[in-house]
Structures are given as C-alpha cells and as structure tokens.
Amino acid sequence: MLSIKNLHASVEGKEILKGINLEIKAGEVHAIMGPNGSGKSTLSQVLAGNEAFEVTEGEVTLNGENLLDLETEERAREGIFLAFQYPVEIPGVSNLQFLRTAVNAMRTHRGEEEMNAAEFMKLAKEVSKQVDLDPSFLKRGVNEGFSGGEKKRNEIMQALLLQPKLAILDETDSGLDIDALKVVSDGVNALRSEDRAILMVTHYQRLLNHIVPDYVHVLAGGRIIKSGGRELALELEEKGYGWLGIKDEETADSAAN
Amino acid sequence: MKPAPTLSAAFLESAGQSLPKALLDLRKQRGTALVDMPLPTRKTENWKYSSKYLKLTDEMASSLPSQGKALTGQEVPGYRIVFLNGVIQPEASKFPQADGIRIASFRDLDDQEAAELADQLDNTLDDKAVQLARLNAARFEDGLLIRLKPDAVLDQPLFVIHEVTADASGSAFPRIFIDAGRHSQATLVEEYRSSGSEPVMVNTVTEFQLADGANITNLRLTMEGENVQHIGATGVRQQRNARFESHTVGFGGPLRRHDLQVRLEGEGGECKLNGVVVTQGKQHYDNHTTIEHVAAHCNSEETYRNIAADQSHAVFNGRIHIHQDAQKSNADMNNKNLLLSNGAEIDTKPELEIYADDVKCAHGATIGQLDEISLFYLVSRGIARREANVLLTMAFINELVEQIPLETVRETAHTRLNQFFDQTFQEV
User: Fold this and answer.
1) Side by side, which strands form the sheet with A54-62?
2) What is the pLDDT of residues A72-92, one digit of tens each?
3) Chain-centre distance of CA A232, in angstroms?
4) Quick one: CATH architecture of A2-250?
C-alpha cells in the first residue's frame, strides 16, 4: 500500500530524514519507535504533506501513485490520515461543521452525495460515543478548550468518520491517562481491517500493549536502524534505546531521576 | 505653500425647499458655517489614512433625484422606511402606527414639531471630529423622525433602507433622528444600498437621544457599490440607565467612513458596540469610534474586527475618554485584524484618555494572518484549501455575526460575506 524509498527531508535547511525505506501492506500495523529528535514526527508530517518540510530526495507511493506530487488535501482524499501529536484549536469553527465539511469533501471525491446536517448529526453522535466524547463536544469550537485526552479522542473520532486507507498516529498515546489510553486504543483497534494500514509513531511501548503491531521499526538519526516483530518493542522497553547505541536524552533523564 | 483645499461652494447650493420652515432655516444656518470649510488632508489627524481616498467633484455636489423607482421590493420582518437618494418614499414604506410612537418624514411635520426638532438636531456629534458629516445638516432634504414616548415599545424592528440610484453623479443626504423617551425600546436597522455606477456620495447622519432607561438597538449594514463614497456619522447620548447596542457590518468601497460617537451622560448607562468590516480589491474602510464616559458607573464594551484582502485598506480608531467624575467606569475595547494578503493594509489605533482614578479600562488590538498550522490541519482532512480559508476567515468574525439579534440581517450579512469569499479565495 505505502512504499517509502530513500526518503530525505529537511526543515529550514536542516536535514532530518536521511534515507527512510519502509513498505507497508494493507491490513498491517507498523510501529515506529525512537527517541526524541529522531525524525518520527517529521516522517508523519512529510507523509501528510506539511509544506514546512522539504523533501529533498526519494519517493513515496500510495497504491502505486506518487504521493509527493499531491497536495495535502488530495492525499487526504486518497486515504492518508494523520492523527496530530498536537491537535490544533480553532475557535470559531464548530467541531460539527469541521467534521461534516471533511466528511463531505471525501464523499464528493468518491462521487457520493453529501450528507445533510441531520444525517451527519446522527452519524457524528454515534461515533462520538465510540470514543467516549460527549456529543456536546460537537458544538464546541474545534479542539477549543479540550483537554489533552479529549483532543486525542477527537483525532480518533475523525479517523473513524473519514475511514482512511492509511492512518498515521503521531504520538497518539502522549498525555493520556490509562483510561483514555484504553478508549483511544479501542478506537484504533476498531479501525483495523484487511484493507487498511496503520502506522503508529511512539516513544514508548505502552501503546503497543493495547494496539499490537505486526512490525516494529526503530528510527534514529533520520534512519530506520532496526526492524523486527512485536518483541522488538518489548526488548526496547526492557533495555532502553541505549541498547542499540542510541543516545536518548529523555531516557537518560528518567534514568538520572 | 499650497493653500489647503476647501469645500467647493457648489456643495452649499442646496436645491430642495420641501421642508418645514424651521428646518430650512436650520439648514441655511448650518450651510453658512461651512463656507470655505477646509477639507481633510493627510495632516488632519482623524483623516490621515483616508483623505487620499476622498474625491469630491463639482458634479457630485448636485442632489440625486428624489423620485424614481426604488429597487426595494423586499419584504422585511418589521416596519419599513425607504429613503431614495435621501428622500423618504411613503408608497414604498410601511410606517408603524401605535400609541406613544411618532414616526414621520421631516417633510410631514407641522410648524411646532419642526421647530422642536430643529432645536434638537445636531446635538449629539462633536462637530470638530466629524467634519465632512456636517455637510449633511446643510444639505438634508428629508429625514426620519422617531419619537418614542415614555415606556413606548416598538413591537417590531424598524428597517430603514437607504438606497441611492447612481445613474448620474451627485449626492444624497439621508438623516434619522430618534428621541427615545424614558424606558422606551426599539430596534432600528439601517441598510445602505445602491444601483447605478456613476460616482456618488452618501452623506448620512443618525442621531439617538436616549432618556433614562431607554433601550435601543441599532444595526447598520453598509453595502453600497464600488462607485459610492459613504460618509456617515452616528451620534448617541445616553441618560441614566439607558442602554445602546450597535452592530455594524460594513463592506468596503472607494471610501467608507463611519464616525460613531457615544456619550454616557447618566449613571448606570451601558453601550455595546460591535463591528465587522471586510475590504477587498482597492477598497477602503475607516471606522472612528468615540465613547465618552461622562457619568460614573457606566459600562462600555466595544469589539471590532477588520478583514482586509488584496490591496485594500482598513482603519480602526477607537477612542475612550473617561471624564474626571466618571468613577467606577468599566470600559473594554477590543480590535482584531486579519490581513489576507501581503498587499493589504490595516491601521488600528486605540486611544485612551482617563481622568478618573477608580476605573477599569481594558483594550487590545492585534493584527495577524490566517494561521498556517490551522490551515494545514483543515486540509489534512481533505477539506479544499479554498474552503479551509473561508472557514478560518469566517471563524475570525463568526462570534460577532452570530450576536446580531435579527436573523434576516444575519442572513444578509452571510450572503454578502459569501460573495466576498468567492471573490477573495479563488478555486485552486
């Protein structure tokens, strides 16, 4: 489904990704782990099409189509979804209006009729229950005043509504307490299907207890330095990033404390 | 040194004589005072950003025809007064008839009413500050008088449609005077529109006198064409516990200028002034507001938002003057501005003059652009870039549009805003 070959990307002239190679097939769940600053979030943003990042070399295809030629909105319509690490607050645009506009943009792209307000309201209420968000959140501004956990649940709600082909989850577990983590994981697991792929980007392996990946990759210094199965994450958990010869400030810090 | 330009004498040759004598006398007297009036220049402080947009030709000095077919066939959910080129059209209007409420054309006043009105007109605006709007007093050919007796309540909103037909160059000078008695209530909507394409000026003055406890809401929609210079002034004086609320939605033109002056003269007075202005192309819009806290224990709340696209230019000048005796004043002024293009310009200036020592006075002004990260977030959900731009721009003013208390006015505003978005954000 997704094929990344020798991907290099930089921001403000500084190279962050230094040759990423990754193949993801439909139905698979991949986890990318790595210390802070390794390029995990950059990879997510580049795949989603953030213009702040410049691709300097390499290629990315989605089902054979050159992804890098597409605008962000076209990538979304082709099935790329990025759950943001820091979802954006947009006061003045209601969550409901935002979600309906997005869903209808997808439907129009697929040649389907737009959903009217009443139809969409019904669907949105169902999905909000699935991620344990009170329907009153639909009336509020997009992420406006939401807690960290509520924002993450709103991201998963969007994924459930938009039904992407490839869902990229950028640090979706960060800032979640154990109950919220369970709700978010249940939502992600509900997304798992044979024709959909999931790419999880995470610092810690605890999310992987809830969403069990098929493959785990370790990203460091802008390259994937090790790939394996689920056991690789457990090994990392036990031994720390230092085990692979990676300097990880956060791990080092927590060890020092 | 070149002498400062003065108002052409042509502008002081008023034609129509269809007013009661007391008003004709007032008009003449006001006209005499304007002989050789200097026109604002770049050096005139309160016109410094706008004087270059002012283009008064001698052709514009003539009055536009006071008869013709008003375009206005629209139904409004309330009473309707139609001004055509500054003159009320009784057959197109629907006047309220109720005890305690007198609403009439200046032309229909008897001598006693006219004399009483002549004494009251032009007492709400600071002449030095409004300059060009003073021309209205020298030129008005009609006007709308609204008198609300104590406790009178106008049961439906009063829509005043100001229409100009710009088939030839000229000017219109519509005028409204509202005398709101104790504890009276009314909602007045002013809608400014135009047809035709010759250069014209609309020079308009609306005055409110609010007695104790009166409660007046004023909505103002400025929507004339690209050929219309609009110079308007609104003066408000409020006595004890009176409340005034205004909602302005303005669309730019070659020159749009509105001066809004509110004087809180009795304790417990309250005003809320909201404004939304959008400009595009080479348009210009200038809002100057003044709130005078004369008496103690008054509240004022002002929120204006400007959006400027293309090479357009918007100006906001908000002055709050808290007089020495106005202790316990509470004033809050906020002006936010959104630039949609590198070529657009917005000038904003809060001015606070505070002479009392026990007051709360807050002000804030910001200028920014659409947030790139918010834009990325929206398009990453498959939303078209144009649509995302519209959502974010609308988000900037939505709060103010939603506060407009009449649905039909909100709808008109939305329709015009959508036209603005269509022209500003092209399909990609």
Assistant:
1) A14-24, A2-11, A54-62, A65-66
2) 999 999 999 999 999 999 999
3) 20
4) 3-Layer(aba) Sandwich (3.40)
B398 to chain A: which residues are within 8 Å by CB?
Answer: 92-93
Nearest CA in chain A to B383: A102
Residue of B nearest to A159 (CA): B381
Please give the backbone phi and psi of residue A62, each rounded to the nearest 5 degrees, phi first: -120, 115
Instruction: Please check whether residue B368 touches A, CB under 8 A.
Output: no
B384 to chain A: closest CA residue: A73
Dihedral angle over CA of A98, A100, A102, A108, nearest 10: -150
- Torsion angle of alpha carbons B104, B107, B110, B116, nearest 10°? 80
B105-to-A28, A64, A133, A156, B176 alpha-carbon distances in Å: 78, 74, 58, 62, 9
- Residue A48: its chain B contacts at CB < 8 A? 380
CA dihedral B5, B7, B9, B10 (to 10 degrees): 110
Tell me if chain A has a CB within 8 Å of the CB of B399: yes
Structure tokens at B146: 């609204």
Give the predicted TM-score (pTM) of the model. Answer: 0.91
Q: What is the pLDDT of residues B124-153, one digit of tens each?
A: 999 888 889 899 999 999 999 999 999 999
Q: What is the pLDDT of residues A215-228, one digit of tens each?
A: 999 999 999 999 99
Indicate whether A229 pLDDT > 50.
yes
All residue ranges of chain B with pLDDT < 50 are 428
Domain ranges of chain B: 9-266, 370-427
Q: Does B427 touch chain A (CB under 8 A)?
A: no
Per-domain residue ranges of chain A: 2-250
Residue-wise pLDDT for B210-253, tens only, equals 999 999 999 999 999 999 999 999 999 999 999 999 999 999 99
Q: What percent of chain A has pLDDT over 70?
A: 96
Contact B380 A109 (CB under 8 A): no
Chain A stretch 94-123, residues whose beta carbon is closer than 8 A to a beta carbon of chain B: 97-98, 101-102, 105-106, 109
Find residue B44's DSSP bridge partners.
none
Please give the pLDDT value at position A242: 81
Q: What pLDDT, on the 0 to 100 scale, is given for residue B375?
A: 96
Q: Which of B303, B374, B377, B399 to mutate to test the interface with A (most CBs of A within 10 A)?
A: B377
